[in-house]
């Protein structure tokens, strides 16, 4: 079983693009050819990712979510793509994505049907793993709908992990395992990390501040059980689910978040060492959203090789102070203002709060990363910082 962890993948949180939150289960290509789940959609996203800096910023996976399949398996029992929407087949799509210097992700389910009612992988784990490998797939998001009992759910996740390893192909394994366990029992994260590269903990992320806030609140509430298990090879996905699903989806560039709320999502996903999977339309995205999502300093924090997940260290009324240990004895620090009305407010804290008093001992430099990049200078161990933060906004610092 330990072989599942030894696939050598996801040494830092995976990054890419996922179709679900933005495009859902649109299958009518006759009336909506630009937004239906089809090979055209993924080829166009791959083209944009290669041409407009997304790949170079680190977003390397183009991920298919639910609704790509034909309603039935083929005569040999193998999964098959819908022939009208994917006339060239997944192998050709993977080849095209690879030709752009990117990787292809795909979706299946541990149960007998996917969440949208397409064929699931129950009793087909080995065959489906071999099929995905033969197509050149690089990542599998494995959902947990229609799995029956918790025992069958756990058995399915273990079996698919081992089946992927047996193919000999490097395939990142994204699980929804703990999300489906939590209503009934506390997940065993040590076991889950033994089989999965990242795992979804919470409900689907939606294009709304309420959704983002609920994910942050849940993460802070459960940080004692989830932060310690994260690290190279295995990551907590606030919603990898991106959140209808798989990866921690970044909904920046859609319709429901203000600018400050978009900054908060980007900053806090970096603090949480979350997989960065965008779910937006990269063909039509504002220059401001593009600059935020491609911000090299924020991505460097998310991808820090030390691989430590951040955590909340204090909460004072509407303000939250989070930190994340980084390589080179540095720390990422986020000051989040949860208040939703009024104007900017100041939060003052002592640098002795950070790193158990060691982050700024005897002195440290402070640089603001978000919402704008600028140096704050050098401070001593006993200094205090005063940070002005907009409502529902976050100031991200590197100390």
UniProtKB/TrEMBL annotation:
GO terms for biological process: glycoside catabolic process; glycosphingolipid catabolic process; oligosaccharide metabolic process. It comes from the Eukaryota. It holds the Pfam family Melibiase_2. This is Alpha-galactosidase. It comes from Uria aalge. It catalyses: a globoside Gb3Cer + H2O = a beta-D-galactosyl-(1->4)-beta-D-glucosyl-(1<->1)-ceramide + D-galactose; Hydrolysis of terminal, non-reducing alpha-D-galactose residues in alpha-D-galactosides, including galactose oligosaccharides, galactomannans and galactolipids; a globoside Gb3Cer (d18:1(4E)) + H2O = a beta-D-Gal-(1->4)-beta-D-Glc-(1<->1)-Cer(d18:1(4E)) + D-galactose. Signal peptide: none annotated. Gene3D superfamilies: Aldolase class I, Golgi alpha-mannosidase II. GO terms for cellular component: extracellular region; lysosome; membrane. It is found in: Lysosome. GO terms for molecular function: alpha-galactosidase activity. Residues 307-393 form the Alpha galactosidase A C-terminal domain. InterPro entries: Aldolase_TIM, GH, Glyco_hydro_27, Glyco_hydro_27/36_CS, Glyco_hydro_b, Melibiase/NAGA_C. The keyword Glycoprotein applies. Keywords: Disulfide bond, Glycoprotein, Glycosidase, Hydrolase, Lipid metabolism, Lysosome, Signal. SUPFAM superfamilies: (Trans)glycosidases, Glycosyl hydrolase domain. Its main location: other. PANTHER family: ALPHA-GALACTOSIDASE A (PTHR11452:SF14), ALPHA-GALACTOSIDASE/ALPHA-N-ACETYLGALACTOSAMINIDASE (PTHR11452).
């Amino acid at each position: 079983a330990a072989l599942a962890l030894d696939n050598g993948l996801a040494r830092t949180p995976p990054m890419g693009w996922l179709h679900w939150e933005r495009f859902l289960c649109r299958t009518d290509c006759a009336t909506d050819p630009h937004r239906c789940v089809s090979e055209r959609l993924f080829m166009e996203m791959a083209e944009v990712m290669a041409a407009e800096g997304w790949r170079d910023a680190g977003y390397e996976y183009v991920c298919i979510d639910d609704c790509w399949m034909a309603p039935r398996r083929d005569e040999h029992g193998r999964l098959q793509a819908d022939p009208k929407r994917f006339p060239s087949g997944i192998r050709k799509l993977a080849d095209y994505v690879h030709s752009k210097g990117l990787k292809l992700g795909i979706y299946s389910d541990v149960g007998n049907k996917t969440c949208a009612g397409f064929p699931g992988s129950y009793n087909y784990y080995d065959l489906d793993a071999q099929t995905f490998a033969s197509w050149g797939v690089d990542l599998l998001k494995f959902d947990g709908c229609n799995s029956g009992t918790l025992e069958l759910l756990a058995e399915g996740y273990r079996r698919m992990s081992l089946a992927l390893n047996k193919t000999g192909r490097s395939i990142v394994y994204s699980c929804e395992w703990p999300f489906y366990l939590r209503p009934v029992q506390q997940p065993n994260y040590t076991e889950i990390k033994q089989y999965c590269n990242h795992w979804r903990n919470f409900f689907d992320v939606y294009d709304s501040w309420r959704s983002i806030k609920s994910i942050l609140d849940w993460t802070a509430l459960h940080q004692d059980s989830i932060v310690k298990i994260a690290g190279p090879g295995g990551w907590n996905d606030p919603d990898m689910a991106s959140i209808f699903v798989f990866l921690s989806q970044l909904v920046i560039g859609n319709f429901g978040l203000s600018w400050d709320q978009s900054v908060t999502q980007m900053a806090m996903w970096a603090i949480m060492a979350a997989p960065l999977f965008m779910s937006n339309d990269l063909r039509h995205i504002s220059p401001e959203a593009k600059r935020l999502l491609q911000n090299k300093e924020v991505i460097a924090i998310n991808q820090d090789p030390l691989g430590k997940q951040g955590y909340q260290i204090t909460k004072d009324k509407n303000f939250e102070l989070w930190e994340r240990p980084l390589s080179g004895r540095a720390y990422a620090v986020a000051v989040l203002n949860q208040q939703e009305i009024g104007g900017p407010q100041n939060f003052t804290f002592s640098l002795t709060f950070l790193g158990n008093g060691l982050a700024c001992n005897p002195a440290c430099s402070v640089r603001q990363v978000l919402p704008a990049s600028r140096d704050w200078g050098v401070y001593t161990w006993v200094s205090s910082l005063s940070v002005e933060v907009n409502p529902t906004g976050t100031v991200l610092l590197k100390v």
